[in-house]
Design brief:
- By secondary structure, the chain is mainly alpha-helical.
- The chain has nine helices and no strands.
- It has helices at residues 5-31, 42-67, 73-97, 107-119, 126-142, 151-154, 171-187, 203-213, 215-234.
- α1 runs antiparallel to α2.
Length: 237
C-alpha cells in the first residue's frame, strides 16, 4: 500500500482537475448561451466548492510527501514561486477580461498562502494541525466584519460582503482544509518513504495520475482553449 500512496495522491489530484475542467465547461456554455440554469444552480456551486476543497486538502498531503522527512528548501521555494507567478498571471488576465469580477484571490493564491502556513505544521504532531485547521474553518462562521470587505483584506476570509470575483478562495476557511490534509498525511504515515513511481494494473488510474502530475498546466490552459472554441461557435447561433 505504501508504494501506491503517491500514485493515489496524483490520481486524486487528476480527478479534481478533471472536475475543474467540467465545471468550467458548464460555466463557459452558460456564459455563451448554449445552456441555461446550470452553472449557478446551488448543487453545481457546491460541486465547485468541493473541488476547491480537494485541491486545498491535497496541498497539505503534498507538503508532507515532499517535506515530511526533510524540508527541501530549493524544491519548496521553486514550487511556491511557480504557484505565485501563476496566481498573479490569472489575476492580470482576468482583470483584463472581467474587470468587474476579476480573480484577486483564487485557488492558486490560497494554495500559495496555505503552503506558507503549512510549513509551520510539518514538525508538530498531527493533532496540532487537525485542531488548528478546524478552528480556521470554523472562524468565518463566527466572525464576519465589514472592515474586511475591501479586496486588500477580503482575502483573509472574515469579510461580510467580499467584492465579486469569478473565483474567490480566501485563507479562512480554506487554509484550514490544507492543515487537515497535513494531519491526514501524518496519521497515514504518508511521506515516510521516498516514492519515485508505482506500477499499477489500472490504466484508468494511471491516466488520472498523469492528469494530476500536470494539473497546474491544465488549470492554466484549459479555459483559454475551451473559450477559443466555444466563443466562436456561440457567434454562429
Amino acid at each position: 500500500m505504501k508504494k501506491n500512496r503517491l500514485l493515489i495522491v496524483d490520481a486524486a489530484r487528476g480527478t479534481a482537475i478533471a472536475g475543474v475542467v467540467l465545471f468550467h465547461l458548464v460555466w463557459d456554455l452558460e456564459f455563451t448561451g448554449f445552456i441555461s440554469g446550470v452553472a449557478f444552480h446551488p448543487l453545481w456551486l457546491v460541486f465547485g466548492r468541493s473541488l476547491a476543497g480537494s485541491f486545498m486538502f491535497l496541498a497539505g498531503v503534498s507538503l508532507v510527501l515532499a517535506h515530511g522527512v526533510q524540508f527541501r528548501t530549493t524544491t519548496y521555494f521553486r514550487r511556491l514561486g511557480v504557484i505565485v507567478a501563476a496566481a498573479m498571471a490569472i489575476t492580470i488576465v482576468t482583470f483584463l477580461v472581467f474587470p468587474g469580477a476579476f480573480v484577486y484571490f483564487g485557488i492558486l493564491h490560497s494554495i500559495a498562502i496555505a503552503s506558507l502556513i503549512g510549513v509551520v505544521f510539518l514538525r508538530p504532531p498531527a493533532s496540532v494541525s487537525l485542531l488548528t485547521g478546524l478552528v480556521m474553518m470554523a472562524l468565518p462562521w463566527f466572525v464576519s466584519l465589514s472592515a474586511f470587505d475591501p479586496r486588500w483584506l477580503a482575502w483573509i476570509g472574515l469579510s461580510a460582503n467580499p467584492p465579486l470575483s469569478n473565483d474567490f478562495v480566501p485563507v479562512l476557511p480554506w487554509a484550514g482544509v490544507t492543515l487537515l490534509g497535513i494531519a491526514f498525511a501524518k496519521v497515514c504515515d504518508v511521506g515516510l518513504h521516498q516514492v519515485k513511481s508505482a506500477s499499477v494494473d489500472s490504466t484508468f488510474l494511471a491516466k488520472l495520475a498523469w492528469l494530476g502530475r500536470h494539473s497546474l498546466a491544465i488549470y492554466l490552459l484549459h479555459q483559454p482553449v475551451m473559450l477559443a472554441i466555444i466563443v466562436p461557435l456561440s457567434r454562429l447561433l
